[in-house]
Amino acid sequence: MGNLVVYSIKVNPEHLNGAKRFFARRGLLSQDVLRVLIRMASRCESCLALVESRAPISEIQSAFASVLADAKETWQLNGLFQDTVLKTAEACNLPQDFIKNVLAEAQRIYTSSDKRREDAT
């Protein structure tokens, strides 16, 4: 792994304990989850920098392969979060379609706000 840096963040202890229990349901350590997310974000940034600098396609493809490898791990997390939302909705007698529509609308709003920020720059 080379030289590692200790990165510390302040979190609510209750949130941290809840997150640890949540990830433990899938046999995951919260530290590992954070490492994967940070690594993937870093690799995504590298890909964007290559695209913006108009690097050769082969170089972009190589960097993109690293992102895809990390995405396998984050997709597991996305599925874990989605399963939890849907199970909770079911326990509350909310139709899954309602929850999926709410999540899709949140994504649409988030995407359009990103577009507005890009247009402003």
Draw up the topology in text:
Elements: H1 13-24, H2 30-52, H3 57-91, H4 96-120
Helix pairs in contact: 2-3
Give your account of this protein's structure:
It is a single chain. The protein is an all-alpha fold and 121 residues long. Helix content is 79%, strand content 0%. It contains four helices and no strands. Helix 2 (30-52) packs across helix 3 (57-91). The termini are far apart. The mean pLDDT is 84.
Task: Write a concise keyword list for the protein shown above.
121 residues
- Give the oligomeric state of the chains in this entry, treating copies of one chain as homo and distinct chains as hetero: single chain
Helix vs. strand class: mainly alpha
Radius of gyration: 18 Å
Can you tell me the overall shape?
globular
How would you spell out the order of helices and strands? HHHH
Largest sheet: none
Low-pLDDT segments, ≥5 res: none
Mean pLDDT: 84
Would you report the number of β strands?
0
How many separate helices? 4
Proportion in β-strands: under 5%
Helix residue percentage: over 70%
Compute the separation of the termini in Å.
Answer: 37 Å
